Amino acid sequence: MEVKLVPDLPAYGSLSMARYHQELRAALLQVAEGGEDIADVKLPGHTYAYTGMKNSFCKRWLLRFDRWLTYPTLLRSYHPDLFHVLDQSYSQLVFAAPKVRTIVTCHDLIPLRNLRGDFSLDYGSFATKAYLRIMEGLKRAAHIIAVSEATRDDLENLLGIERQKITVVYSGINSAFEGNTASLSTSKKQALRNSLSLPTTGKMILHVGSNAPYKNVMTIIKALPKVQFGEEVWFVMVGSSERQEERREASNLGVADRVISVRGINQDQTLAQYYRASDVFVFPSIWEGFGWPPLEAMSCGTPVITSSVPALREIVGEAAIQVAPENSVLLANAISRVLGDANLRNDLIARGLSRAKQFNWITSARQTLSVYRQLCEEARILNPTLIT
Predict the structure, then answer these.
(1) pLDDT given for residue 230 in this prediction
(2) Which residues, 6 or more positions from 90, have their beta carbon under 8 angstroms from its beta carbon?
(3) What residues have CB less than 8 Å from 44, skipping those under 6 apart?
(4) Based on the domain organization, do 157 and 243 belong to the same domain?
(5) Which residues face 323 on adjacent strands?
(6) How far, in Å, CA of 10 to CA of 43, rounded?
(7) What string of H, E and C letters represents the secondary structure of the chain?
(8) Which domain holds residue 252?
(9) Cα(295)–Cα(208) distance, integer angstroms
(10) How far apart are CA 265 and CA 70, in angstroms?
(11) Given this model, what pLDDT does residue 52 score?
(12) What is the CATH number of the domain that holds 350?
C-alpha cells in the first residue's frame, strides 16, 4: 500500500500544521509494516524559496497560484493507493485526486463558523469564496479524520457529512513537553522570569496561541485586575501580541504594564520552558477544534484553566478548571483559586499529567494506519482491476 502525505505549503508558515505533518509522519513510519510505503509528495523547490519573504501583495498571489494551480497539477502526476491531505484548508486538492483514494484530516471548521456569524474574523471576499470551494472538496473526500468528537459533530451538523465517513483520531503531544513531572529548576525559572522583567514574587499567567478574536485574549485582560494578589500578577502572551482593542482595554484597566507579549518562539523545547515557568495556563477560547496548548501545559506540570466549549471539555476532561468563555469574573475567580490554593494546584497538576499521557503520536499513527487499511479495503484499491 502506497500512501502519499499532502502537507501545507511551507511558505504559509503554520507551525501547528507543520507539527502535525512532522509528528504524524514520523510515527507512521515507526508503526508501518513492510508492505506499506508512506512518504510526502515532493513539493517543487520554488515553494520553499519565498518562505522567508515578507508578507506582500506579490507573495499572496504567488501563494494563491501555487495553492490553486501548482499543487493540484503536482498531485495529478502521482498515482498512489491513497492520498492523505493533512489539513482541511487544502481540501480543494481532492478535486485533483481520485476521490475514492483521498483522506483529509479536519482540525476545525472555524472559518465556516465565522461565516455563520459566530466570530468576527475578516477573511476578505477572495478567501471567503475560496473557503467555500475548499469545503466542497472536503465533502468529496472518501474519508475524513477529525481530531475531536466536537469537530466530527461540526462536520456532520454544518456540512452534512455522513458520520460513518468520519473517524476521530486525537493528535499526540510532542516529546518536548513530555516526561517532566516537575517545573524548571528554581534558578532556570527565575532566569526566564528575569528575561521578562517579572518581579521575584510575581505570579505568571500564560497564554499560548494567536491573537485571533476567537482565542478570547480580551477576557484574560479583563480578568487581570480582578485576580487576587493585585499587582503581583502578570499576563504573558506567547505567540502573538495584543490587538489594538486589547491594548486599549489593558490601558483603560491600568494593567498594560503587566501584559507581556513574546513572539518568535519556534522551538518546542523553548516553549516548554515557558509552560514550566508559569503559575497557571489560561486558554478561554470561544471555539477550538482540538486544543494542543492545554495538553502541552498539562504535560509540563502546569495547572490549566480553559473555557467550557465542546472540544476543550472533551480534550481536558476533568483535569482542568473550565469556565464560560466570556465571563471575566468567573475566570478571575478561577485564576485566584489556582494561585492561592496549593492543594487545588497540586491536584490539577497531577490530573493534568495523567490526562496528557493519553495523547501520543504512536496511538494516533496506528489509528490513522487503520483508516488507510479500511479505505483500501472498501475501495478495493488493492484489486488491480479497480477502475476509478
Answers:
(1) 79
(2) 6, 8, 67, 71, 104, 134
(3) 66, 70, 74
(4) no
(5) 307
(6) 9
(7) CEEEEECCCHHHCCHHHHHHHHHHHHHHHHHCCCCCEEEECCCCCHHHHCCCCCCCHHHHHHHHHHHHHHHHHHHHCCCCCEEEECCHHHHHHHHHCCHHHEEEEECCCHHHHHHCCCCCCCCHHHHHHHHHHHHHHHHHCCEEEECCHHHHHHHHHHHCCCHHHEEECCCCCCHHHCCCCCCCCHHHHHHHHHHCCCCCCCEEEEEECCCCHHHCHHHHHHHHHHCCCHHHEEEEEECCCCCHHHHHHHHHCCCHHHEEEECCCCCHHHHHHHHHHCCEEEECCCCCCCCHHHHHHHHCCCCEEEECCHHHHHHHCCCCEEECCCCHHHHHHHHHHHHHCHHHHHHHHHHHHHHHCCCCHHHHHHHHHHHHHHHHHHHCCCCCCCCC
(8) 176-356
(9) 11
(10) 31
(11) 62
(12) 3.40.50.2000
Domain count, the chain: 2
Q: Which three three-digit cell numbers place residue 54?
A: 515578507
pLDDT for the residue numbered 123: 64
User: Which residues of the chain are modeled with pLDDT < 50?
Assistant: 181, 382, 385-388
Domain membership of residue 248 (yes or no) is: yes
At a CB cut-off of 8 Å and minimum separation 6, what does 202 contact?
A: 193, 232, 233, 234
pTM: 0.92
Task: Assess whether 197 and 54 both reside in one domain.
Answer: no
Whether 384 is covered by a domain: the verdict is no
How far the first Cα of the chain sits from its last, in Å, is 16
Which pLDDT value is given to residue 65? 86
**Cα(94)–Cα(196) distance, rounded to whole angstroms?**
46
Q: Based on the domain organization, do 211 and 292 belong to the same domain? A: yes
Quick one: cell of 256?
Answer: 498594560
Residues 324 and 188 reside in one and the same domain: yes
Which amino acid does the sequence have at 92?
Q
Cell 495547572, located at residue: 303
> Do the domain assignments include residue 81?
yes
Residues 272 and 187 occupy one common structural domain: yes
Tell me, yes or no, whether 192 and 225 share the same domain.
yes
In a shared domain, residues 224 and 290: yes
Q: Domain for residue 334, yes or no?
A: yes
Q: Give the cell for residue 252.
A: 483603560
296 and 347 part of one domain: yes
Q: How far apart are CA 266 and CA 247, in angstroms?
A: 24
With a CB cutoff of 8 Å and minimum separation 6, the contacts of 163 are 152, 156
